[in-house]
Amino acid sequence: METFDGKNAIVVGAGISGFASALLLRREGAVVTLFDERPKEDVERTLGTPLPPEIAFVRGGVPETSVPGADLVVLSPGVPRGTLPLQALSRAGTPVWGELELGFRRFSGKVAAVTGTNGKSTVTTLLGNMASLVFPRVFVGGNLGTPFVSADPGPHDWAVVEVSSFQLETIEAFRPSVAVLLNITEDHRDRYPDFSSYAETKMGIFRNQGKEDAAVVNADDPEIAARLRDIPSVQVPFSLSRTLSTGVSRDEGDMVYRDGSVEERYPVSILKIRGIQNQENAMAAIGAARRMGVPPDAVWECLRAFRGLPHRVEFVRNLRGVSYFNDSKGTNVGAVIKCLEGFTEPVWLIAGGKDKGLDFRPLREALARKGRAAILLGEARDRMVRDLSGTVPLLGADSLEEAVRAAAANAQPGDVVVFSPACSSFDMFRNFEERGDAFREAVKGLAE
Asked: CATH code for 101-305?
């Protein structure tokens, strides 16, 4: 392991992962300066704790004058690389890592990493449950919660980490023994110049793998299928649409894992998580867990017990024959399409939020087939109306509570009301969790 004792380290971004990185570097003897655009009081309020006096805080961006004395820059995932003085850092030979890279270099054990536009948190949690049932020392975290750099020191059997595209922008040595890529659909147009740049960043999860590593990939995703030749490791595909001789696929009512002469069957009926997207998530977890050495009985037990995560097609309530589902984590078009496809009932869709520049037109076909109507709100409402006009009746609402009341007033017994926004929450809420909680409360507040 590398040592940081006496090194001058700059950490950019004082969010959860940036703060955790600063604490780790300081514990290991580095001189740490933490940069953030917000006032120190706002940072401390968000973190819920005072910044330690031994970590210097500077409000603003990193000036070029700070580069000559820096031995390392750690960039938080929410901060674009372009905000740094990159030319000066390159001339000085100063490495720029993300929290993921720093965590990997400090971790003693194997790593399983999960990425994709949608489903990352579900698969990471499910796979972490499977590993924890068998191995005594497992860290589960990453982008979905506890930063990788916060893993307890000392040897581990595995780390199971959720990885975002933002984190993959700043990897150098990061090499997961098992890497999972669930899907690639349009997202983060406010961060990447085009879809190809976003897709290639996602593919970076395989960049440093070797032939002894495994890549668990969605064989049904056209963007992944077009890039399979770029993967250097052993591929473990999963598919809902066709039978695979190697990997995980559907056969009648079973999810079937095949590897050489091995064939294992896991009934779809044991899943408590709803929707075709969660069948894909389960198959990805099966393929990854078996490559990690998790035995079939542990895989089965965790599939049977897993009830899903909040805000991911989460059942809230049935009222007068109408069921309400909270899918606040559906922050892009691909997630909403998968969500809609998972329902056989007519859907009242509540959608909208901050406009990230996404094209909503790919929603048209699924909405026309599955939808009864759509209630649109937020900053993106007008553009969603233009993109979705002619599919189903489109209603407007000025608040989430108003949208829920409108759906309740119009939905018929046997319908479902689904909140799957296709947008981020930052125009009306702090995050998708707060937004999902508000939906839950609005639904629970409906009169009997």
From this structure: 3.40.1190.10
Q: What is the mean pLDDT of residues 186-213?
A: 93
Domain spans, the chain: 8-94, 101-305, 314-444
Complete DSSP assignment for 8-64: EEEEE--SHHHHHHHHHHHHTT-EEEEEESS-HHHHHHHHTSPPPTTSEEEESPPPG
Domain 314-444 has CATH 3.90.190.20: yes
Sign of CA dihedral 350, 218, 183, 382: negative
**Partners of 396 in the β-ladder:** 376
As assigned by CATH, the class of the 8-94 domain is alpha beta
Whether 167 and 100 have beta carbons less than 8 Å apart is answered as yes
Tracing tokens 């780390």 back to the chain, one arrives at: 159
The pTM for the full model equals: 0.89
Q: Which residues pair with 395 in a beta bridge?
A: 375
User: Residue 202: which of 220, 190, 217, 219 has the closest Cα?
Assistant: 217
Residue 375 falls in which region: left (phi positive, over 0), alpha (psi -120 to 50) or beta: beta
What are the φ and ψ backbone dihedral angles of 258, each rounded to 5 degrees? -125, 135
Token readout for 323 is 């069921």
How confident is the model over 218-250, as pLDDT tens digits?
999 999 999 999 999 999 999 999 999 999 999
